[in-house]
Amino acid sequence: MIILGIESSCDETSIAVVKDGKEILSNNISSQIDIHREFGGVVPEIASRQHIKNIATILDESLKEANITLDDVDYIGVTYAPGLIGALLVGVSFAKGLSYGHNIPIIPVHHIKGHIYANFVEHNVEVPCIALVVSGGHTNIIYIDENHKFYNLGGTLDDAVGESYDKVARVMGIGYPGGPIVDKMYYEGDKNFLKITEPKVDGYDFSFSGIKTAVINHVNKMKMKGETFKPEDLAASFQGKVVEILSKKVLKAAKEKNVKQILIAGGVAANSLLRSELKAKGEKEGIEVIYPSMKLCTDNAAMIAVAAHYKYMYPNGKDIIAGLNLNGKATLDI
Ligand code: KG4
Ligand code: ZN
User: Fold this and answer.
1) 9-36 burial by CB neighbour count: b if 16+ within 10 A, else e?
2) What's the gap in Å between 303 CA and the centre of ligand 2?
3) What are the residues whose beta carbon lies below 5 Å from ligand 2 (ion)?
4) CATH for 2-117+298-313?
5) What architecture does CATH give domain 120-291?
6) N or C: which end of the chain has fewer CB within 10 A?
7) Where are the domains of the chain?
8) d(CA 299, CA 314)
9) By CB neighbour count within 10 A (0-12 exposed, 13-18 middle, 19+ buried), where does 75 fall?
10) Kind of pairing, strands 2-7 and 75-81?
11) Ligand 1: does its nearest atom lie under 6 Å from the Cβ of 8?
């Protein structure tokens, strides 16, 4: 079964061809990061326009690389939620055009499920399992049952993890997007420099706004006094605390649900400390910690095609094919 994946929920335009939910025949991504960098964040209107400009070329490239034509495509998997509405609509409208013109049914895909299914490409994932979703817009602990039904066990009450990385980096003036820069600086700083108290949050929910504010307050204080600060020490203190909290809660969830695997998903799954620390802690508990290779961590269409494949395999009693009235949705629970 050949699925054409389409992703345009934020600032990456991507089209992929995936065979049988496992074999990536092509996965072309056009990132707009360099365009948005000068604004310090994604500008929605610019993102939509860039998607429109690039999407047809990316389709041509992906089909060519996979050595197929649209006649070979069985289904289109497209991200329809959540994300920037204008950006989502470019992918959804493009998918509908292809569907109508070439008689290819559409399977609508939840972006976060795409991030989770990225793990299924390179690993033997066994359900039930637990997924830790960490991206620019999401921080959730999800339980996936044996029928691939998703249950949200908890999530952030304020900022998403990636969002707080980006905000902390912005205040320190170290660049955009902040995640990868803070991650690198962690190893050059003292993680005990700033004492950050862990917020008291029940169950599997999280709060990152206090941790973020602790760093921001320190930077502002130093600026007011006209003193310099060492961003490496703040990056190390921030990342150390964030990874400690995420690891603790997701391990607790895995033990409570008695699963043997934890999947890390979303852009922050690229974080080197989260990967190594959670893997080491999991090993001690007999829990395998799985994460995608770097290319599949950030937004891409291969993960969307894989998620569409599993939606097809496990429809859970739902009609999974969308009509031409499919719309994008800025927010949607998993
Ligand atoms: O999943 P993603 O590509 O887009 C969303 O759907 O949000 O995630 C982007 C987020 C950004 O906030 C970025 O700073 C963060 O992922 N990120 C990282 C790392 N690489 C990307 N955060 C921490 N450490 C990293 N190495
Ligand atoms: Zn994403």
Assistant:
1) bbbbbbbbbbbebeebbbbbbbebeeeb
2) 10
3) 135, 299
4) 3.30.420.40
5) 2-Layer Sandwich (3.30)
6) N
7) 2-117+298-313, 120-291
8) 23
9) buried
10) parallel
11) no
What is the 3 state secondary structure string of 132-166? Answer: EEECCCCEEEEEECCCCCEEEEEEECCCCHHHHHH
Predicted structure pTM score: 0.96
Ligand 1: atom nearest CA of 162 is: 12
Ligand 1 atom closest to the Cα of residue 111 is 6
Amino acid making up residue 65: E
What ipTM was assigned to the predicted interfaces of this complex?
0.98
317: amino acid identity, one letter: G
Q: Looking at residue 12, what is its pLDDT? A: 94
In which residue are the tokens 């070979």 written? 72
Question: pLDDT value at position 40?
Answer: 85
Distance 169 CA to ligand 1 centre (A): 12
Q: What is the structure's pLDDT at 147?
A: 97
CB atoms within 10 A of CB 220: 13
pLDDT of 109 > 90? The answer is yes
**How does pLDDT run across 110-138, given as a tens digit for each residue?**
999 999 999 999 999 999 999 999 999 99
